[in-house]
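Risk register update: the risk of archive-format incompatibility is retired. Evidence:
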Amino acid sequence: MKETELIDEYISRHIEGEHPYLYKLYRDSNLYLVHGHMISGHVQGTFLHMMVKLLTPKRILEIGTYTGYSCLSMASALSEGGKILTYEINDEMEDFTRPRINASPWADKVDFRIGNVLTDLPQDAGPFELVFIDGNKRQYVEYYELVLSVLVSGGLIIADNTLWDGHVIDAAYDRDAQTKGIRAFNDLVAQDDRVEKAILPLRDGLTLIRKK
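Archived output:
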């Protein structure tokens, strides 16, 4: 077992326990999907849950639902009347994800849509207090510009995979489109004086971006 996996196991034993429904979703994702490892998982899900508890947002936007683990982790922390709008561009995920969101204890807090958020997000969808970006790495820059326009002042963007398994500092991946997309996003955010930012080395890298 890799050291990072051992650390994840250690963290899991020392944080809030995983909700049984999320545990089953994690198991199903890894059992039935080829890329089940892409799921957020307990450690990151707990972090997202905590951020929602701290920020108490009424409106959350998520880009990249996948199996719904991160979405439901956040939805489980929403207060009365809170809502999360989540987009998944891969329509092949609908048959797996929609029934599991609908069967969850937090179904009434989730608006799950299949589509491209860059073209399908309604003009009146916002404003949002929290945005979680975990979509196509090649389009992170486009996502960023879109969500800044619908994020309230003082609102938070959480962007996943911003260290990209270390590829952001590995010259061997200079021609890789996804790595180039993440690097461009990181460079843009670093130079953007409209926001405050920090990068956490949690899992594959999480960037926290607060709109001024």
